[in-house]
C-alpha cells in the first residue's frame, strides 16, 4: 500500500495497481497462469488470495470485487494518500522491516499489525465523516 500512497516507490515492494476480480472463485482461470510462471499461492481466505514469487520480490493480492478485504485495502490506500503523518509512519516501519531478516511472512505481517490497525481506525473515522466510497 505504501507505494501507491503518494505514487512513489517507498519500499520497492508495494505497488498497488488495484484491479478487483468479479470473484476470486475464478481460481481455475486466474491462478494456473500465475503458478505456471512461478508464483506461489500463500494465502487462501474468503474473498482474498495472495501469491508471491519465490524470491519474495512480488506479492500479488487477488480479491473479490466489493469484498470487505477490498474495501479496507482501498480505504487504507486513500487514507495514506491524504494523511502525510500516517504515510510517513507506515513508510518508516516498512523500511525498517525490509532491512531485517524475518523468519516468515507471518512475522512481517504481525510486525505491521499494530500500526496498520491504528491507521485503519483513523481511516474509518475519516471515511464516516465524508461518506467515503472506493475510487475506481
Word description of this protein:
The chain starts with a helix and ends in a 6-residue tail after the last helix. The protein has two domains: 1-11 and 66-136, no CATH class; 21-65, no CATH class. The chain has helices at residues 2-5, 27-36, 68-82, 84-98, 105-130, and strands at 40-45, 48-52, 59-63. A hairpin with a 6-residue loop joins strand 2 and strand 3 (59-63). The model is unreliable at 1-16 (pLDDT under 50). It contains five helices and three strands. It is flat. The chain has a three-stranded antiparallel sheet, covered by helices on one side. 51% of the residues lie in helices and 12% in strands. By secondary structure, the chain is mainly alpha-helical.
Range of helix content: 40-55%
Count of discrete structural domains: 2
- N→C terminal distance: 16 Å
Mean pLDDT: 81
Q: Strand order, main sheet: write it out.
A: 1-2-3
Q: Write down how many β-strands occur, each being a DSSP E stretch of 2 or more residues.
A: 3
**Shape, principal axes of CA atoms:** flat
- Our Rg estimate from Cα atoms comes to 15 Å
Main sheet makeup: 3 strands, antiparallel
Order of helices and strands: HHEEEHHH
Total helical segments = 5
Which regions have little confidence, pLDDT < 50, spanning 5+ residues?
Answer: 1-16
Name the features.
51% helix, three-stranded antiparallel β-sheet, 12% strand, 5 helices, 136 residues, disordered N terminus, flat, mainly alpha, 2 domains, single chain
Amino acid at each position: 500500500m505504501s507505494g501507491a500512497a503518494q505514487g512513489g516507490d517507498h519500499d520497492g515492494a508495494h505497488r498497488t495497481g488495484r484491479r478487483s476480480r468479479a470473484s476470486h472463485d475464478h481460481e481455475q482461470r486466474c491462478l494456473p497462469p500465475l503458478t505456471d510462471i512461478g508464483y506461489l499461492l500463500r494465502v487462501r481466505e474468503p474473498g482474498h488470495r495472495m501469491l508471491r514469487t519465490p524470491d519474495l520480490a512480488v506479492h500479488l493480492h487477488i480479491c473479490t470485487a466489493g469484498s470487505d478485504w477490498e474495501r479496507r485495502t482501498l480505504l487504507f490506500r486513500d487514507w495514506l494518500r491524504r494523511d502525510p503523518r500516517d504515510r510517513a509512519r507506515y513508510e518508516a516501519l516498512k523500511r525498517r522491516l525490509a532491512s531485517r531478516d524475518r523468519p516468515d511472512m507471518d512475522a512481517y505481517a504481525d510486525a505491521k499489525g499494530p500500526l496498520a490497525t491504528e491507521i485503519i481506525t483513523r481511516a474509518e473515522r475519516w471515511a464516516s465523516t465524508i461518506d467515503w466510497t472506493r475510487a475506481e
